[in-house]
Queue: 2 jobs
Job 1
Amino acid sequence: MEKTPTGTAVGVDDPYAHVDRCDHLTDAGKCRFAVEQGDSDPAFADARGAENFQCPVAGDLDEEGLTGPWEWADCRHFRCRDHTRECVRCGLEARRLAHSDERPLLEEHHLSYDDAATGDGDPGHEVTVVLCRWCHAKVHDSWARIDDDVNPDAEAIAAAESRRAREQAELGFESAAERFDREQ
C-alpha cells in the first residue's frame, strides 16, 4: 500500500486508479496548464503547443475513454483534487455552519506522495480525495482502505446530526412578538 513520507498508509495501492481526470484538462481535451501557466515550464508548454495543446493522456475526444499515448503518471503537471462534499469511503455528507470555528466533518486526504517525498526537485503529483475525519484516522492508523464498503461511524453521524439540528434552528422564523414574549 502507498505510504506517506512518515510511513503511514494512505489507503490505496495505486493513487491513479482513483482519478477521473486531471484538474488541468478542459472539456475540449486541452491542457489548461500549458496554456495558462506555460511560462513556468516553457519546454512542456512548447511541446503541448506543437500538438495544439491537446492533452497527451486524454487523446482523441471522439473515442471513449483515455486514448492518448501517456498515462496520468507520465505527465509532470498532473493534479487531481477532489472537491466533493461527501466522504468517498462512508458517504458522510458535509455540514458546515457559517461563522463557526468547529473542525470540519470532511478533510482532504492525499493519496500520492511519490516525487514530493524524494526531494529530487520534481514536482509531486497531487492526488486527493475527501474523507470524513473518522475514516481519515482509520486509513492512516490502520489497514483501512478508501474503497472499503463501510457505513459512517456512530460518532460521525451524531456530529452531522447535531450540526443539522443547529442548521435547521438557524433557518427557523421567529416573529418579534414571539421573541418579546420569551424575553419577559
Job 2
Amino acid sequence: MSQIILGKNSVEEAIKSGRHIDKIFISKTARNLQKLLEAAGRAEIVIKYVDPCKLNQYGKNSQGVVAMASPIKYAQVLDILSLAKSRGEPPFVVLCDGIEDPHNLGALIRTAEAAGAHGLIIPKRRSASITPVVEKTSSGAVNSLLIARVSNLPSCIDHLKKMGLWIYCADMDGQNWCEIDFSGAIGLVVGSEGFGVKKLVKQKADGSISLPMSGKISSLNASVAGGIIMYEILRQRKNIKAKFF
C-alpha cells in the first residue's frame, strides 16, 4: 500500500533517501521545482502534471506536489544504538510519551534530526504514527532519522538504562535545564500535549528537566519545549566523540 507524501521538501528528501516512489503528481501551476524534477529524473520516477484541484483530495497543504511512495520502515531500538556506536558517539535518543498531535510529532522529528539525535522512539498505542501530515511537518526528516515504535515505553526505558543511557523527562517540576550534564548517553522524554509525561514513565526516568517560565503562561508546546532542550543537549555534546558499549 502506498503512502502519500505532501509538499516539495518532503518529496525531495524522500527521493534523496532512496525511498521507493511510484509516481509524483505536480500541479500545472507549480513553480520553482527544478531541483525536485532533476532528482526525480535521476531516479526515473514517473511524473504526472495535473490540475491543482485534483491535488486537493490528498491535502490542502501539498504546495502543488504529491508523491505516492512506499510506507516508512520503522527501525528497531537496537538500530538506533548501533548507529551511535558506529559514529563513536554516546547515544542521544528522543522518546515521545503519547504525542498525539501529528504536527507536534513532525516538529519533534525535524528538530531531533537537526539537533543530531540518533533516533526517536514512539509507542505503538496512544501516539501519532508516521502519517502524511507528520512527514510534511517534519520537512522530510522522517527519511533521515531512525524512528522506532515500541509496545511498552517504560520497558524500553529500562532497556536503555541497562545500555548505559541516562533518561530525563521534560517536566515543569524538574531540575533547571542548564544544571544537567548532557554530554554522555542521553534519552530525552517529551510528554503529551495535555497530560505531560505519564507517572510510570517519570518514575522510570533518572530525573526531570524544567524550563524557566517568566510569563503568565505556565507551559510550552511539547515540540517547542523538546526543541529547546534538544539544542542544549547539542550544545553540550558538540565535538564530543566517545566509545560506547
